[in-house]
Amino acid sequence: MARKYVKMEHMTEEALKLQEQGKTKREIGEMYGLTKEQIKNLLYRHRSKANKVVRINNLIPKRKGRPRKKPITTQKEMELEVSRLKMENELLRDFLQSIGRR
User: Fold this and answer.
1) Cα 53 versus chain centre, distance
2) What is the pTM of this model?
3) Domain map (residue ranges) of the chain
4) Mean pLDDT split into 10-residue runs, the chain, 102 residues
5) Sign for the pseudo-dihedral over CA of 50, 18, 9, 44
6) CB atoms < 10 A from the CB of 27, how many?
7) What is the Cα–Cα distance from 32 to 4, expressed in whole angstroms?
8) pLDDT at 62 (0 to 100)
9) Residues 6+ positions from 18 with CB-CB distance below 8 Å
10) Would you call 38 exposed, middle or buried from its count of C-beta atoms within 10 A (0-12, 13-18, 19+)?
């Protein structure tokens, strides 16, 4: 028995309009003979494609990794952080030399 195939991309705009009117995913699915999960996935795919287009058009790369707790904003703050880390490295190096580990 062959599976029933439905081209769902054509329903995307109609599903979005119905959702804006206040219909639930289950109600939209019943109108088209689909399940709530299928409608949820359809709308998710549409949103992810739209977000990808926005990122490409605005040339905003998607950030990778964990977000910073407190971003380093100015050049002065960055220089202070670098100097603090250099001083910390020197202190640790001197400590390791004094106990004979290096």
Assistant:
1) 14
2) 0.50
3) 8-57, 65-102
4) 71 90 92 90 88 71 77 81 94 91 68
5) positive
6) 13
7) 13
8) 67
9) 27, 28, 31
10) middle
Among candidates 80, 21, 67, 14, which has minimal Cα distance to 43? 14
3-state secondary structure of 67: coil
Contact criterion met (CB below 8 Å) for 24 and 15: no
**Total count of residues recorded for the chain:** 102
d(C-alpha 31, C-alpha 38), whole Å: 13
pLDDT of residue 59: 67
End-to-end CA distance of the chain: 74
Q: Which amino acid is at 5?
A: Y
Separation between Cα atoms, residue 6 and residue 29, nearest integer Å: 13
H-helix segments, 4-102? 12-20, 25-32, 36-57, 75-98
